[in-house]
Amino acid sequence: MGFRVWLVGFCFWVCFLFCGSVNSKGLGLEEDGFVRGRVLIDGKSAIGGIDEDFVCATLDWWPPEKCDYGTCSWGRASLLNLDLGNNVLLNAVKEFKPLKLRLGGTLQDKIIYETEDHQQSCVYLSRNTTELFGYSQGCLSAKRWDELNEFFKKGGVKVIFGLNALNGRQIALDGSAVGAWDHTNAESFVRYTVRKNYTIHGWELGNELSGNGVGTRVTAEQYASDTIALQNMVQSIYKDIEYKPLIISPGGFFDENWFKEFIDKTTQSLDVVTHHIYNLGPGVDEHLVERILDPSYLDGMADTFYKLHEILRNSPTSAKAWVGEAGGAYNSGHNLVTNAFVFSFWYLDQLGMSAAYDTKTYCRQTLIGGNYGLLNTTTFEPNPDYYSALLWHRLMGRNVLSTSFNGTKKIRAYAHCSKQSRGFTLLLLNLDSNTTVHAAISYNRTRPRRLHHKHRSYNHKPKVIRIPRPHGIEGEAFREEYHLTAKDGNLHSQTMLLNGKILSVNSSGNIPSLEPQYVNSSEPIMVAPFSIVFIHMPNIVLPACR
């Protein structure tokens, strides 16, 4: 009986919004800064699936001397000099329980590893414009690797380590890297790692050497051969260990022909195919914000996700797609854009879009460092995208639902089955500067089922904001909303508000709790101009989420 009451009320609400008002204020028509719209969710079956720990971040090798366009934004954020004792850093990582961290970047292919078999002087990366990538060869000391792993253990990190793929190769006159990969030093490093009982989630080979490459390039045929060599090496070293790390490659920009050949030649050797995304252009570009807020520009990345998905679908490989590095704007990003509130529109749209094409993990450049870090390079304070990432991680479950929005092109909509209930979570991004959207939800080709229970318990204790916390009032359903806005409405602000309250760490360096506001599910969803809303519907169970 309760479900029937709810269903009648739901149908009345939908009809009232979209049928009764069609003559005067139809779907998508604006009046006094408002527009009505409809989210359409096909809950019959999932269109994709993501890893439980889909959200991933990177740590890079760049030294303080790394400067772009006259700005030096890296400070002490390198794997070699990052302050691992910073309390905010540790707390920020712990909140994800666990966070995947990909260790790598351009200079990983200039790094050698200090081990028992390689004990020559361990020198620091130094600027040298005559060298490839503008830096001399550097070294990861055994002591620093031990320190990093101690931090990873404390933070509950899943480590993906990018190995130097240029060892043993020569740079030809045409700029390509020729010859086979010399994995002698890498093998010694992996053996040391195993002897120390350090858990590695995945070993990745090389950085941005696919296709035309960055700085240099390796053919798909040679890279496939080297990846097979990596797999053989790892299998040999881990033969007596139950847990086997993933074999990951190539960690470069998507080139359709190159990737197809590479995947076809590694069908038995590869677990994860990684590609990188910097689709907004250079960090110095003056049109970054314009592109971030342009739905048509954002849609442009769908072609890459689709093509890689199709290559994998049509191949006998069992490898899965990851975004191994994505900073949006290359050459360290742009201060007060890629580390400010406005970038959450790009970032969350990327998470939603990539997931819809069955991308399993998405690694953000960076956790800290450059102008695109989730954390401030100097203070370690979370930038807005940190909170966006954390909310995604907590709310968006593994099953991806087909989702669309009718009413305005300025709303981006994504939905997943929820992590914390049998319901679903909807993400809405409003790219419009002036229009508030009133959104209702319709379900395509399936009838949702409402859960009946008097009390709901979660790992956190939500604080009531808009209405008293519901206590299972029969015949009523409530949803949880997380509204993200910029301080003072300034898109370039590095301060984010959740339901009108500033998010910031306390004096002990603790990450603030992210509390929802409760709203009666019969009310339309209100999405303010230039705002982001996560909507958790715990009581609506779709077939894809059962």
Automatic annotation (TrEMBL):
Residues 1-24 form the signal peptide. InterPro entries: GH (IPR017853), Glyco_hydro_79 (IPR005199). One of its GO terms (molecular function) is beta-glucuronidase activity. It is found in: Lysosome membrane; Secreted. One of its GO terms (cellular component) is extracellular region. It is a peripheral membrane protein. The keyword Secreted applies. Keywords: Glycoprotein, Hydrolase, Lysosome, Membrane, Secreted, Signal. PANTHER family: HEPARANASE-LIKE PROTEIN 3 (PTHR14363:SF17), HEPARANASE-RELATED (PTHR14363). Belongs to the glycosyl hydrolase 79 family. Endoglycosidase which is a cell surface and extracellular matrix-degrading enzyme. Cleaves heparan sulfate proteoglycans (HSPGs) into heparan sulfate side chains and core proteoglycans. This is Heparanase-like protein 3. It comes from Cucurbita moschata.
